[in-house]
Every structure is written in C-alpha cells, then in structure tokens.
C-alpha cells in the first residue's frame, strides 16, 4: 500500500481545498474550506456558474446589506453543496471571521448558513460550521451544538483553546500544525525534525488528553507543511490535508506506522473547567497561540473582504 492508503487505515482523511476537481479526483471522506481557499477557487472559470447562482439569489434581497450577506452565504454554500456531491462525509463551511469576537453574531450567521444549506437540499448533519477558537467563538459553538448544528473550531493553537472546546462539547477541533511550526522556526531560528515538530507535539498532547479524559470532541490536525508531520500524526481521528500533500503520500510506498492510538492512552483526570478569566490568562501565556490566532483571523478576514469586494462589484454591475 502507498502511504495514503496506510494512513486511511487509522485516520479519516479530509481534503483541505476549495477545488472541487481535486476533491473528485482524490475521493476523501470529508472536505474543509476557508475564505482563502474559496477566494482562490472563485477566480477559476470552471466555478463561474456557482458564483452566478449565488449572485442571482443575492439579488432577490431588498437592501444592500442583506444582498452582501446573502451573496457571501450563498457562495460558501454553493461550494459546500458541490463538494458534498463528491464525498460521503462532511463539508466544513466557515462563518465570517469578522464575527470572531461576537458570540451571538456568530450564532446568527451559522443559523443562516444552515438555513441556506437546507434550502439547497443539504441536511445539517452533513455540515460542520467552522468558527475561530476565540472565547466568544467557543461560546457560540456551545449554543449551536445544543441546536444540532455541529461545529469545527478552527485557528486552534494553544492547549487552553483545545481544553475549552472540549468542555463546550464541540464536535471537532482543527489544531494548525504547520502554522505552529512556522512560529517556532522564526522564533528559534532553526528547523525541527518531524518527531520534535512543535505542531506535532501540540496535537499529540491534545489527542492524548482528549482520549485519556474521555472527551468526545474529534481532533483533526490541519495546516501541514510536509508529509513528515502527517506521518507523525498517523492515527489521529482526522487529518485535513492539501491535494499536493495527498498526492505526495499516494506516490510513496514507505512504511507509515500508527503513532497515535486511543488504546495506548492511559486514563487521566480532567483539568479544572476553564472560565473566561482562566481561559484568557492561559491562552495569553502562550505567545505563539496568541499571535497565531490573531494573525489567522486577520488573514481570513482579509481574504473574505477581497471575495466580498468581487461579489459586490458583480452585484452592482
């Protein structure tokens, strides 16, 4: 078996892309998108019909603000619906990153996305709502989960974020392996082997805590820089991987042993539940987590603004 096939024995493979052709070719179980990926895909001619349909729906709204909001929602849902036609599992759709510090704004946006999916014939059971792992985002996810709207907490870098997400009962978290590595390489001025990769170490710690403390939240490693990171996390619940790295795994027949295994994790006592003050302090004490969360929100918001500007120009033409 090639490495991708070996990985699939222990881990659910998720495609990290907005490129539907790649998803159709690679046949992952699930797929994730974000504003950056959709912005890139939206500029490709083969997806023009999705943009056109979203704009047609937005034009039905009565105000400029409602047209703006509808256009963004419909584009995200159009890509998600198209992706779901090529996979058996779940599609993750991200809410507006500019709502990352607005709990009820995030809840309302998530409800709009789920309503739009329902109108497109997609049941909520096939959708994960992606929300930044801020305190406000985690509280929004806690509300949404009680409504049967499952959430994927993204831009997760610190252990405090992971702990709070599990305590809130969210469906899934996406710790960003590669971005953690990026920060440490810059801060320490050196490279890391796969075994000592700070992103790998972080996800391993979270995985072992969740399994040992009997949390049901799924751990899905994300943002990989190389296949070495992926190899060290073989056995993680899920891994969301770019098409380029999926192809690289498929081209290698090297042995890929299981590294993470719930059966090998001893039981551990749950840590004291984090309230807001404890969460903010513990997250603040993690310089990498603090900086990368803020940076990630800014980057996703910037790409969303670019997409929004493109859509608004089309709406006004």
List the helices and strands and how they pair.
Layout: H1 3-10, E1 12-16, H2 20-26, E2 30-32, H3 35-42, H4 48-58, H5 64-84, E3 91-94, H6 103-119, E4 127-132, H7 135-146, E5 151-156, H8 159-167, E6 172-175, H9 177-188, H10 198-212, E7 218-221, H11 227-232, E8 238-241, H12 243-250, H13 276-284, H14 287-316
Parallel strand pairs: 1-2, 1-8, 2-3, 3-4, 4-5, 5-6, 6-7, 7-8
Helix pairs in contact: 3-14, 4-5, 5-6, 5-14, 6-7, 8-10, 8-13, 9-10
First-residue to last-residue Cα separation: 53 Å
C-alpha geometry: globular
- Count of DSSP-assigned helices: 14
Helix content: 40-55%
Average residue-wise pLDDT: 95
Uncertain stretches? none
Condensed summary:
The chain has 317 residues and is α/β, with parallel strands linked by helices. The chain has helices at 3-10, 20-26, 35-42, 48-58, 64-84, 103-119, 135-146, 159-167, 177-188, 198-212, 227-232, 243-250, 276-284, 287-316, and strands at 12-16, 30-32, 91-94, 127-132, 151-156, 172-175, 218-221, 238-241.
Describe the structure.
There is one protein chain. With 317 residues, the chain is of the alpha/beta class. The chain has helices at 3-10, 20-26, 35-42, 48-58, 64-84, 103-119, 135-146, 159-167, 177-188, 198-212, 227-232, 243-250, 276-284, 287-316, and strands spanning 12-16, 30-32, 91-94, 127-132, 151-156, 172-175, 218-221, 238-241. An eight-stranded parallel β-barrel has the order 1-2-3-4-5-6-7-8, surrounded by eight helices. α3 runs parallel beside α14, α6 (103-119) packs across α7 (135-146) and α8 (159-167) runs parallel beside α10. The relative contact order is 0.15.
